[in-house]
Design goal:
alpha+beta; binds zinc ion; 106 residues; HIT family, subunit A; binds adenosine monophosphate
Length: 106
């Protein structure tokens, strides 16, 4: 399977991780749309957050904890946490991921 985020999480594409947990990694979005724009991505492949939630709630909980940790470390406390799900909602990479964005990075 040709999945860019699988290549990043597996280390095939060298990437500077902002933070890592048991089941997820966090790295800066290549094309940031806010002053802080970090992606939080499960190490294992799931198509989107719906599939992730149904198949592996413990991985979702771990990913959410990492996202909140990154938001706490990298923003002044105001942030957005979002999952685009489906092409018409703007999903362009079909490996589940959370966007952590903030207009007020720390
Ligand atoms: P989405 O549109 O919700 O699927 O989000 C995919 C995000 O991945 C976009 O914000 C892209 O800018 C970002 N992205 C795509 N390729 C890379 C990459 N190689 N490294 C970091 N971010 C990427
Ligand atoms: Zn993948």
């Amino acid at each position: 399977m040709d999945c860019i985020f699988c290549k990043i999480t597996s280390g095939q594409i060298p990437t500077n991780f902002v933070a890592v947990s048991e089941h997820a990694v966090a790295f800066n979005d290549i094309s940031p749309r806010q002053p802080l724009h970090v992606l939080v991505v499960p190490k294992k492949h799931f198509t989107d957050v719906s599939e992730l939630t149904k198949a592996a709630p413990e991985i979702l909980a771990d990913l959410m904890a990492l996202a909140v940790q990154v938001a706490g470390d990298k923003s002044e406390g105001s942030f957005r946490l979002s999952f685009n799900t489906g092409e018409k909602a703007g999903q362009s990479v079909f490996h589940a991921h959370a966007h952590v964005t903030s207009v007020e990075p720390r």
